[in-house]
Amino acid sequence: MMKAKYEQEFELGPPTPFNVEKEMRITFRDGSQIKLCPKEKPKDTIKGAIMFELDHPDPMLEEKIGKDKVNDFFNSMLITKENFEQLAATQFGVLKPLGPGPDEIFNFGINPHKTTSLGKNEMESAKNLIETIYTFSDQRRGIIVRSLRWFRRGAEANSEDRFIYRWISFDLLVALLGLEKKEKTKPKGTPTLIKEFMNSKYMKAETAKMIFDKHKLTIEKLSKANLKSFRGTERSKQLLELLPGPKHKLKHILTKVMLCIYELRNTLFHKGELFETINQNSALLGDVFRESLKTYVECS
Length: 300
Prior knowledge:
- The chain has helices at about 60-80, 120-135, 140-155, 160-180, 190-200, 205-215, 215-225, 235-240, 250-270, 280-300, and strands at about 5-10, 20, 25, 35, 45-55, 90, 95-100, 115.
- It is an alpha+beta fold.
- It has 2 domains: about 5-135; about 140-300, no CATH class.
- Helix 3 runs antiparallel to helix 4 and helix 6 packs antiparallel against helix 10 (about 280-300).
- The longest helix has 23 residues, at about 160-180.
């Protein structure tokens, strides 16, 4: 039985956080292919297309398959590409069925913030990350893909929205720890899960140092923010007592940092109060999510 072929065009931006200086293609293990076209003007949108095949065409799934593959690819790029912060939602064109014949189907025309150049190696890194995630069990893959989609929403947002979306991404990642242990005991609270996750193999000592050095000023502000849990635990004070600490305690320090950010989340959600350092905390949270996810995938 001959496979059914489809082409789905898409646009990314504005804003576009990277430049495409020449045509680039990436091919996945299943034979599907994503193509990105060069921009004629710096402010143009990124144009591209995905071509894929289905053994058993299903009108209810055809369009979803193409869209999910494109979005998963760009979502993974948020993890693998440096200095890649803002990413607008992908706009899709009409799904086009293709007849049998050559696969050279990308013949559509190109209509004439701060950006970085996108290279072939970076596209390969994003592809490798998402393809590895696709090999996980349905439950683990579902959690990670959802966490990436929430993280993508944070890349489209600003200020408190970005913080909220990134927190949801991190919270989903922490949930994976329970799957690994396959615990059947009483569910643990978020603070306990954060402690276990930050001190697990998914947070490397060198990663903790990188995050600490990069966000030292933000961490100092958290230690003086007078953050407390609803039960009166002095989160900021506990962090302050560890600063400055020996290098071998950086994972412990970062655990206290994440507990402080957890209280920022509680203050925002349950009291409606917004800290003026929300953007800096969002950036810190983003780095913790990116590095933890990369390590999780490497270790799995």
